Amino acid sequence: MRSYRSLVRTPEFTPFLLSFAASAAAQTIGGLALGTLVFRATGSPFLSAVSTFGPQLAQLLGGAVLLSGADRLPPRAVLTGLSLAFAAGTAVLALPGLPVGAVFVVVLLQGLVAALGGGVRGGLLNEILPKDGYVLGRSVYNMLWGLTQLAGFAAGGALLALLSPRRCLLLAAALYLLAAVVTRLGLTGRPARAKGRPSVAATWRTNALLWSSPPRRLAYLGLWVPNGLVVGGDSLYVPYAPEAAGTLYACGALGMFAGDLAVGRLATPLRLLLAAPYLCFFLRPGVALSAAAVTVASVGFAASLVLQERLMSHTPDDLAGQALGLHGTGMAAMQGIGAVLAGTVAQLTSPATAITLMAAGSVTVTLALAVLGGRPERGAAAVPAAAD
User: Fold this and answer.
1) C-alpha torsion angle, residues 101, 102, 106, 111 (rounded to 10)
2) DSSP letters of 283-341?
3) In angstroms, rounded to a whole number, what is the distance separating the alpha carbons of residues 25 and 19?
4) What is the pLDDT of residues 99-118, one digit of tens each?
5) Angle formed by the axes of helices 13-42 and 75-93, to 10°?
6) In angstroms, how far is the first alpha carbon of the chain from the final one?
7) Which of 202, 226, 284, 372 is the 20 to 30 Å CA partner of 85?
8) Per-residue b/e over 33-63, b at no fewer than 16 CB within 10 Å?
């Protein structure tokens, strides 16, 4: 599969994307509205940030206890049920007078089950597309996520100028309902990929099995660490250039879009590209050069597409959902760790120094993984499950 036209003709791919777009728009608009609501109620930037990004942190726990359900439950039923649950939870967040403590309980519960949703959606995409269409299909998926985020934040900001945060939350709940309807009507009911009931023990056993294979382990590390260190540096755009942080974030989104649009087959060069341009921040460049460096570097995020394909080539089909769910959970965790690390270094030195050090660390890890992987750019045969 070599063209976007062939993707569109693939049965179920379009409704899969539409349901994801509705969920992503709901998440973006709802997160912005909730952060605004909490900030107005508390005056705390910290609580506002936690309300917006708390679900991402809660995914760590969800990845540790729920991921076995990604392959042991019927995907359409799970995605429909999760969309309905998110719609209900978002509607609860819009209730007048809801205590801040209750807000965080709902937010953390949503984040907990989000890890399961990511694994189910990733495994389902692996089923819908033929093997030779995974990278192209995932690139479209990533581009849609980026465009939805940009549009969602822009629309959310405009809506908050016209409507109250609670009404914006109700709009987000309606988008989740739309995602549930599209999922239920547009996707085929499939049986679970793996036998057995989901459990915490099954999640831990399969996570351990996935980690035990050296090719998969190198793929996971390549997906998590270089990305997380660079994203940690990205979190310092505001203190680095307060008046131009929006420009830098927009350039980063543009670079990611370009990388996903024209992804190549070489993972290591893309991972090096992801970090190397940030080394110039040591010289404290102006906005124009910084924006150019961010745009070029962000093309390197497309390395994740190649690494995901490599991960899938070493993973049995009945573990695809949990394998991709573990990828998503680990990436979220490493991005959070990278942001904390970058913020700490910036506090002790300067934002420019911290960004440079994060980039240098990313380059070092990429080169080390390339050495450990031998010749990683050559295709490798899939490793049978029994050999892991």
Assistant:
1) 10
2) G---HHHHHHHHHHHHGGGGHHHHHHHHHHHTS-GGGHHHHHHHHHHHHHHHHHHHHHH
3) 10
4) 988 998 998 888 888 888 88
5) 20
6) 29
7) 202
8) bbbbbbbebeeeeebbebbbbbbbebbbebb
Helices (H), the chain: 4-9, 13-42, 45-65, 69-72, 75-93, 100-128, 134-162, 165-186, 200-212, 214-234, 237-240, 245-261, 267-275, 287-298, 303-313, 320-348, 351-372
Contacts of 42 (CB under 8 A, 6+ apart): 48, 100
Provide the token pair at 351.
């934002």
Q: What are the residues whose beta carbons fall under 8 Å from the beta carbon of 53, sequence distance 6 or more?
A: 31
What's the length of the chain?
388
Tokens of 234: 């990205």
Question: By the 8 A CB rule, do 35 and 151 touch?
Answer: no
Residues 6+ apart with CB under 8 A from 25: 148, 151, 152, 155, 172, 175
3-state secondary structure of 216: helix
Contacts of residue 312, defined as CB under 8 A and 6 or more positions apart, other chains included, come to 126, 134, 320, 323, 324
Q: Which two tokens stand for residue 204?
A: 């831990």
Closest among 183, 119, 136 to 10, alpha carbons compared: 136
CA distance 333 to 340: 11
User: Which residue is listed with tokens 């341009």?
Assistant: 277
Cα–Cα distance, 7 to 253 (Å, whole number): 23
* Phi, psi (degrees; rounded to nearest 5) at 219: -65, -45
For 10, 81, 140, 162, the CA distances from 68, given in Å and listed in that order, are 28, 17, 26, 43
pTM for this entry: 0.71
Q: Cα 381 to chain center, whole Å? A: 27
Q: How far from the centroid of its chain's Cα atoms is residue 258's Cα?
A: 17
Question: Residue 318 and residue 305: Cα distance in Å, rounded?
Answer: 20
Q: Taking 80 as the threshold, does the pLDDT of residue 189 lie above it? A: yes
- Residue 34: name the closest of 149, 157, 165 by CA: 165
Structure tokens at 265: 């087959």
If you ran DSSP here, which 8-state letter would residue 266 be given?
-
